[in-house]
Amino acid sequence: MKIRWKILLILLTFAMLPLILIKAYGLDTLRDLGSDLQIQTRVTLLERARSSLADIAEGTAARINLEDLLYRTSIKTMQGEAENLLSKKEILTLAHPPFITSPEGVENMPTLYTHPDYKKSTLRGRGMRSSRENKTSHVKKGALVDIPISLNHISFWLPQGLSKRAAMPSIRKLAPMLPTFQSCSQTLNKLALWQEITLENGLQVSYPAHNAFPPRYDPRISSWYKEVKDTLKTFWMHPVPEPATKSLCYRLSSPLFNEKDKFIGVVSLVVPVGIAINSALLMSTEKNVKIMMVVSDHSTTSNKEKLLVIGRNKGSAEENISANSKGHLWQAPPKPEWIYEDTPEFATLVDDVDNQRSGVLQMDCEGIPSLWTYSPINKDMALLIVTPVIDFTAEADKAEQYVSKSIARQIKDTTLIALAIISALGIVAYFASQNFASPIRKISEAVTKVGQGDWDARADVNSHDELGDLADSFNLMVPQLRERSSILQALSLADEAQQNLLPKSTPQVSGAEIGAKCVFSEKTGGDYFDFIGCATCGEDIFATAIGDVSGHGISAALLMTSARAYIRALTGQGRPLVEIVSKVNSLVTTDCAQTGHFMTLFTAICDTNKKTLNWIRAGHDPALIYTPETDEFEELIGTGLAIGVDEYYLYKENFTQLKSGQIVVLYTDGIWEAHSPKGEQFGKSQLREIIRDYYDKPAQQIAEIIHKQVSDYRRGLPLEDDCTVIIIKFL
Length: 731
What we know:
- This is Sigma-B regulation protein RsbU (Phosphoserine phosphatase).
- It comes from Desulfovibrio gilichinskyi.
- By secondary structure, this protein is of the alpha+beta class.
- Among the domains are: 177 residues, 2-Layer Sandwich (Beta-Lactamase); 102 residues; 229 residues, PPM-type phosphatase domain (Phosphatase 2c, domain 1), CATH 3.60.40.10.
- It contains 12 helices and 28 strands.
- A hairpin with a 4-residue loop joins strand 6 and strand 7.
């Protein structure tokens, strides 16, 4: 903000204050009258709403308790009948072939018909190809489609791995469950979607009969089955999408035991979340009303005072959807969603949910005054409806608008006076600011000159106030900036020199294809790689090395440069590999004696004609050998101490026989230690997957792909370490 505007604001503050006081005094009476009218109307309307909602919530809680007893009685009946049938030694002969469904197909399917209470949330969308079996390709994604069922049959689901022959004894024993299922269905009167029995061998019995399970469905890996098996207790599970209908359902499950009290399976009632909820509570489907199913979670201290949203009602404009099908209109949040308000009222709400109490509270929701209506469903779950107070106080708001219009008319009368005062003060502020702006303008001009490269520019301000102090500070800062610029230029030259030391391209040798790439985490880095030919050994033989100096920056770059010079001076003359590495170690140890730095190194001599690899690993990550023919990886581990630690360390040369098609991968730890924004490492397993997926690509392309996927994994995070990789494909 310019100084003239600051002066204007100061003058306005003092000039307008008397005018504001006079104006406020004249409006106080009318404002108080309107406020009293609005408050009294608002209080009356809110009290009526609170009383009505509280009565409905209490009625819903009582109904839920009764329905819970009905559910538990029904599942007890199913449990007793199933255990009785399964405990019988004799296996009955079935009067009719059983309706069996499995990933391989359907057997003995009875006549199925659509029922308004059984619908599936389709995952298909427009543009999907239709087929003779698929009649829903034109349906929008998320729409409800009918599931064919039979109320006169039981369906037996055989998951992957369970044969019909292995399942038939259990099927023959459980086939007589049909009358029990039908009796429980009449008792529950549409309060349950499915009645199911799941055995340890994976067989699942479902009533009504249907063929809607996904091909890979195995109930034994479901959380509800595992928890019943672990606890051996009857309990309600939190709502999750049910596999057959894709709708949000909760499940009452109870264990099954044989005559020796050994666990043999689970009997369940699957209930859509909307079934047990009083429709009177779902008063509105307006966008500003939030209808949720919540549960308290005390597993962690941070979530103890919060409520977890496990389902949201998405509403429906279709009038022909049955009451039972409204259970399909609930969706689970795509990721964990928590509700929290830092108020005593919210703490009361959490306590009521914990203790299965219903009620109505008034508090803000995301800054909006709201009524929170809640009613227990079962155990620690509750239905929560958050309605903005404004939906109940429309009449009070109209009164407030009337008062606001009256006040606006009086404000209009005083606006002309205020504009006149502001205009006069603006003129005064303009001329007064000129005296203040001159020193600032000089400093600004000096800054511009420095930005253009004039390091001799100075701000000539003769003032004894803060502006003068600012000019003096600027004049002292310019020489320091000049010195820093020189340092940065020198670092840039060092970076350019180091980049020139790395190979510009990979060598072209017969019998092998080579690719390599190095990316530094800073301007200068400590990673090193090289390829060295051997004129006395033959065109098919070359040496390669990859290393990583401890630390980063200038010191690491200098040590890398020295090590490169030593390796190049000793390699390529036909000397034994042990002699070369030992001599380099001696020289580097001498250089690093007082610095504490060291260097890991993996060096190898490759004979592409004989397809042999003589190598030494000096503390570096083991090289990988991938064989596409067998899809196997081998690590060249060996033994060896890092270069620069022990001057007299004795290294051991290793030999590996290779064959055509194998790929040798050398890399530094910056590749697999790269972190994602979540703090997870890229890992060696992902590196292996890249080699496995792209082994048929050119060697240089594989190196580029590795670096790209490491960069994508970081998602914009800076490199923490240098990244280098060498790919050698034996042809």
